[in-house]
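Hi there,

I know you've been waiting on this one. I reran it after we fixed the sequence typo, so this is the corrected version. Both the input and the resulting structure follow.
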Amino acid sequence: MAAAAAAAVGGPQAPQPELPAPGLALDKAATAAHLKAALSRPDNRAGAEELQALLERVLSAERPLAAAADSEEAAAAGGGGGPGAAEEEALEWCKCLLAGGGGYEEFCAAVRAYDPAALCGLVWTANFVAYRCRTCGISPCMSLCAECFHQGDHTGHDFNMFRSQAGGACDCGDSNVMRESGFCRRHQIKSSSNIPCVPKDLLMMSEFVLPRFIFCLIQYLREGYSEPAADVPSEKDLNKVLQLLEPQISFLEDLTKMGGAMRSVLTQVLTNQQNYKDLTSGLGENACAKKSHEKYLIALKSSGLTYPEDKLVYGIQEPSAGTSTLAVQGFAGATGTLGQLDSSDEEDQDGSQGLGKRKRVKLSSSTKDQSIMDVLKHKSFLEELLFWTIKYEFPQKMVTFLLNMLPDQEYKVAFTKTFVQHYAFIMKTLKKSHESDTMSNRIVHISVQLFSNEELARQVTEECQLLDIMVTVLLYMMESCLIKSELQDEENSLHVVVNCGEALLKNNTYWPLVSDFINILSHQSVAKRFLEDHGLLVTWMNFVSFFQGMNLNKRELNEHVEFESQTYYAAFAAELEACAQPMWGLLSHCKVRETQEYTRNVVRYCLEALQDWFDAINFVDEPAPNQVTFHLPLHRYYAMFLSKAVKCQELDLDSVLPDQEMLMKLMIHPLQIQASLAEIHSNMWVRNGLQIKGQAMTYVQSHFCNSMIDPDIYLLQVCASRLDPDYFISSVFERFKVVDLLTMASQHQNTVLDAEHERSMLEGALTFLVILLSLRLHLGMSDDEILRAEMVAQLCMNDRTHSSLLDLIPENPNPKSGIIPGSYSFESVLSAVADFKAPVFEPGGSMQQGMYTPKAEVWDQEFDPVMVILRTVYRRDVQSAMDRYTAFLKQSGKFPGNPWPPYKKRTPLHPSYKGLMRLLHCKTLHIVLFTLLYKILMDHQNLSEHVLCMVLYLIELGLENSADEESDEEASLCGPERCHDSWFPGSNLVSNMRHFINYVRVRVPETAPEVKRESPASTSSDSLGSLQNSGTAQVFSLVAERRKKFQEIINRSSSEANQVVRPKTSSKWSAPGSAPQLTTAILEIKESILSLLIKLHHKLSGKQNSYYPPWLDDIEILIQPEIPKYNHGDGITAVERILLKAALQSRMNKRIIEEICRKVTPPVPPKKITAAEKKTLDKEERRQKARERQQKLLAEFASRQKSFMETAMDVDSPENDIPMEITTAEPQVSEAVYDCVICGQSGPSSEDRPTGLVVLLQASSVLGQCRDNIEPKTLPITEEEQIYPWDTCAAVHDVRLSLLQRYFKDSSCLLAISIGWEGGVYVQTCGHTLHIDCHKSYMESLRNDQVLQGFSVDKGEFTCPLCRQFANSVLPCYPGSNVENNLWQRPSNRSIQDLIKEVEELQGQPGAFPSETNLSKEMESVMKDIKNTTQKKYRDYSKTPGSPDNDFLFMYSVARTNLELELIHRGGNLCSGGASTAGKRSCLNQLFHVLALHMRLYSIDSEYSPWRKLTQLEEMNSQLGNEEQQPEVPILYHDVTSLLLVQILMMPQPLRKDHFTCIVKVLFTLLYTQALAALSVKCSEEDRAAWKHTGVLKKNTCDAEKSYKILLSFVISELSKGKLYHEEGTQECAMVSPISWSPESMEKYLQDFCLPFLRITSLLQHHLFGEDLPSCQEEEEFSVLSSCLGLLPTFYQTDHPFISASCLEWPVPALSIISQWCSEINAFTERHAEQGKALLIQESRWKLPHLLQLPENYNTIFQYYHRKTCSVCTKVPKDPAVCLVCGTFVCLKGLCCKQQSYCECVLHSQNCGAGTGIFLLINASVIIIIRGHRFCLWGSVYLDAHGEEDRDLRRGKPLYICKERYKVLEQQWISHTFDHINKRWGPHYNGL
């Protein structure tokens, strides 16, 4: 045996086993079994060698690779086998060897039995649908596969379904990542105890075979890799290699799926260093191995990596014991790792960008540090496999294989370490990659599995310096795209920033690395190491400083920029992801007092970095003008750590603050941003394009605000609380460029700002101060209070859906922070502040979503305008909030007028920030407030109500926060007033308010009115208040002094000799004074803030002495200050509230207020206005009036339109509609008058100028969807459930027609039945009429109007000019009256026989087509339109195509379709009676004229006229005509309703009432006979015998013709003559249920059989003769309709039960005509008894059509359909959809199912709905409607728990059916109103 085996194996050099093919498999098995036996012996060396030799040969790497390298040689080398054959052979061998001679399948099963793995570990790739449960997750990245999720119990949890972006793996069973309570049933129980030990021999072969196999794979990879040439990307070649290796990698993947036992073998193989060394060192004599090793070394080199050759390094690199590699060598040491790089290709490329000034510091080269970037040493298969995986840019298969191994714990650790070791290499490959997106996703796919596990992350951090590696790699990556910063000092700046235009930032290439970093920082143990490690912090701050000041904007002052750069997206994303998110991660670990040290570290290095930054950009104390950057991450780090320190760690704020000078520097840039925001909103940056607005919006947008504007404002608050208040306030006004505006003079000059911008900049400055002083986000609010304030602000702007609220409320971006959306606190706060408005469904309107709206008490007490202003992205939202607030006050009766923003009490300040309130008590602010009040009172220019509002707000804030109650004695009225130097005596607002200021010296231009005054004593009142503009006051000379002083203090204290630079700033302050044309004037003021306020009250109220101190009447007011009446109101209320507070604060103020009020205020002087100003004022006034008029007109117009829309558009509720009359319905008018909605004239419709109705023609298959069972079908959600259409109305009619056509003459078949159940044409109108010539010119104008209208004018589509309803044709109105003249209506007393004759004669007259008039042309063209509306297959049913019979059938079927549909719209019966809206707006009358006109052109076979058959007895012999041709359809097989329409349409129009009644009577006899015949077939044999017998006895009674018993027995006896009742096998009896028929049940059967006919006939009569339909109960419907139709004799008594037979009126003796009819049937049943019976039983009881019923929960649909394969290509379609009418599964946009350029959904919509399709898109939960050539997204009928749609399943919350919405959809389908109700239509170009 051994010899045989050896022979089979051959020497190692044998090229290929030369065995005959069939023997191969057997031999492989035998060889394998033999080897296994050999290896099981104790001494198995021989076996091992033999196996090695065999493997060497089988797995020889040479042949396939020659193939891979080059395909031409491959063909030659591979001989006939081609390149794939050898690989397959090798795989077969491996499988055999692993199984050791047994079958491979059995082997797999055996191994699986020993699977101890308790983890799921299922790996998936992008687009897989997985679940995430926040309740069960420990790590935020936790995810579960669908199977584990559904098998676990997550009821009531916060979970969602999501589409995987990058791929992932199932965490079920892993208690590091999720709580055990969430494990599924499969992974809860497995503990290793009950798994038996793996028998040694089972996997023995694997241990020998697999190392060789993996080595072979690595050799392939080495061989196949060729360095990409510099210019050509080599993806193609790499992909080729990978395709060849597909089977090998798949084989490995299958091995991993065998479970734990096999995985542990693989782990051994992959991590065993000895194996690797033996096989790959390239030292053997094998040339092939040597070559391969060389290739490997080349690949390493070209990657810029070195291979430590010296033998010492061999073996294991000892990590230094736990300490960081970056020993703190100061700043230089930290960056040093980067200093020493091979000049790899990236370096050279960067050099070209002229970044010579880059801060690169050489580092003392220790191999250790260099090792992070440049050294790779592979010591095992795993390491080299990962290396190649990276080289080949992460092929999906390899990634999946590597991840599939993760459930093995030992492997997991080894792999994580390997991954970290290759981290720098990954980054380099990623940077070069051309497909960085895919690669990023694959990298994260791996890393998220490794780093989400805290235990693992900690271990790697300790053993492999994970943190050092990550930070260094990030730093290195960003270094490649730095440019010199142009901020501040362009020439000499040493600062470098990232260039946001580079691909690295634009494409977010850094994303995977940053995301890993954020991931590991979320683990406490890792973050702690980071925060303790000073070296790391220094490096990290260095990294952050790369982003400080990036994307600098310079204001364009002359031209508009020609190219708007969009780099700001990249900049904001980079700051958020690379700086802010790691910051939030670190902050989440600084929550308790013990972590104070960490904060101190961060703050310390942050300040150092900031100081370096200020130095690098040469910053002294003035920012460069006209530039702004929104990116200050260092400032924000500093701010957020300060905030955390005070809020959570009880750290003393002053201990972490720098000196005053640093604070002054810190404040400048954030303040610059705030001023720039105001400038941008004042349109001062418009020349920079739209993108600058985009930046301003992004800065405050909800995802960014808490990492951007909030820290900035907080930092400014901190600075303000520690700096001199006068300095701070004056800096603010200076930054906002409004210093010059703050003058008492009526004119000023502003050197830095155009006049048009002054007002909004002043508003900006004041608003900023209000926000700064009243915002408490970081100054003492708790998390819940913050959440509540945010939520209230968002809800006040607009009602919000739950998901948009979640999105708009800035959550702390770090997932472990506690405030997670959907967390308990979110829901409880939401329910506290808002009410839920359930979604409403207006029948004609848009679908609403469930909304939350603020509760009344929120408006009353919590509405906070400051928060709203801070959080609005669009300015209009502030207005919207105010409008809603106003509406609330009006509605609740709290305040009728236009209210001002309410003043809201603030939460108390944290003690550390008390200094902030000093801003309110500084003279500078008081001077500003005083000046502004004065200017407002004097009506100076450029002041708005908004300014006043903010001034009052600041005063009120000051009163609320007054420092200490000042003693009243402290200051009685001060001594003589000095001029402007001592404006105010102290700094307390309360006392300063009452301080009178008599004179002010101002600097004004010489032209100003103030100059002309001689003496300062003259009162100022005569010439003030002028409106001219320009000039500057010296209010702020005080400020200039202060700043000089401040400067001196700093210069003395600071040791640097910077004095030389400093003076330039102070000199700037005197500049305005030196302007030549200024002169000094002295104004007499004589006011105090209090007196100004009181005068303001008079001014606002427009009355003299309007203010009367309330406490004089009611002393109580002073005791209980909170008075609700002051909470809401306008300016007057605000002034009153302030005066009251001032009086409360000090008795002195109270007294002064009273005094001021006593002095009667002198009348305000009439203003002197120059002529020019008068003009402008008049202009303004006129404009105002014009505006008001316009408003009024618009409002009136809107209300008219609204009332019109209400009447016209109510399509869905027929009950309460007040329709528009088409006609004027007074009977005496002989001609109907129509209004043309285009030209507005009214008049009758005439032959030469016809009027038409605006109609929409559409093909419809709704009727065909009726079924005969009550239960609507449900949508199939398992393979078993299928929907078959054979019981639909359309199918039944089809079968019937084809049966008739099989046996009878074609032309008569086409009269015997209606078509149009599928693809019938439905005509509907909005009721408006227009002249047809007007319509033509209207269409012309539409055609020339190039606006995209959403409809196609070329197809004749348009919208009604009046009501905008969609239409596509015009139906001409027949001249003549609509209400027939009375003589037509009179009941005639002629006998039925005469009438029958008349009818026959009238029908016989051929209808000549009227002469060529305009009317007839239009009739023809509309007929053409009707035909073209539906597809040919729905029109042509005749066997001879194009025969006129086709048209005939089609035309009367159109009438039938419209009547049947109207019946359905009325609910399937006529019990409700009345003229429904449909009736009033119906166009059936006009339609009938058009159809009749055309039908009379055809004549029916004269010898075969159904009318004769119905009304005359024929001679028997004519029955037996020639046998050859097919017989006519027997009259009893005719559809009576069709006959009715044929008879009526063949009559000349207008029809006379008595003719109509006559036709109905005659047809009723036929119908009744049919009913009897059908009944007789349904009875059992015995019943029939009994009935036959009873009838015979009574045959000769007087009313024989009106007794159904007699008639029935006669029918039975007549039909018994034929074979109809014969040949009843047993199965027939089973089919017909043997019910015993009672007389009652028979009567009911007969009535039900006749009812559909009576309903349609009554409708027809109602339309033709305008008679109302009576309403009735359901049970009396038959009798009411029959008497209404004149079938019942009038003298009919109602006392005994109603008998349907009493309606019969036979034109000829009943029994004879019945026997004539029956004989036709007998003749047919002679040959075809079966069919004869089938044709007799017509099922006429159709239920209303319904869409399929949908399951309660969307998930049931989704889980079944999203994995369902397409029947054509058996792949899972990208966009699966399902038809809601018939349940067919279709591919949306799928190319696999395309037929003749029509995609499947469009095709299906034509086949299933004649052009109307309703599809549910499975992956989006949305319904899409296809109507003809257009489509629209209808919306979703599945809503989540908060009443919201989830389009595209983005949120993945559970969705539940919304019955009301589905009803609305079904209603629109049945009533054909999709076109009218849905507005957003677009063409689909057959591509859906």
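Quick highlight: The chain has 74 helices and 28 strands.

Best,
R. S.
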